[in-house]
Amino acid sequence: MTLHVSRSGYYKWRTEKNSTHMLRKAAIMKRIQYHFADHQKRYGSPKITRLLHQEGYTVTERTVSVYMRHMKLRSIVSKTYRVQTT
User: What DSSP designation does 9 have?
Assistant: First the structure.
């Protein structure tokens, strides 16, 4: 079975290390999962972005939402309490 890949490309893929971008993305995704679980799955990308800014990460709200979508994390929106008298 052939992979339809050049020999040099295969060996480069096999020996290359993780890039700094991939390591940063993994760290941010880990922190997103932590904050999402820590706040009972209620925080969405805006609030998680604010928490990441407080920790010192420079990341946009759109990036956080893309990462959350990739991890299949969706915030639970609770309905507002309304008094019903009748």
Answer: H
Q: Which amino acid is at 63?
A: T
**Hey, where are the domains in the chain?**
20-70
CA 68, CA 31: separation in Å to the nearest integer?
A: 11
What amino acid is encoded at 4 in this protein? H
User: Which residues fall within 8 angstroms of residue 61, CB to CB, at 6 or more apart?
Assistant: 45, 46, 49
Cβ within 8 Å of residue 14, ≥6 positions away: none
Overall pTM > 0.70: yes
Buried b (16+ CB within 10 A) or exposed e, 7-37: eeeeeeeeeeeeeeeeeebeebbebbeebbe
Instruction: List pLDDT tens digits, range 9-49.
Output: 889 888 988 889 999 999 999 999 999 999 999 999 999 99
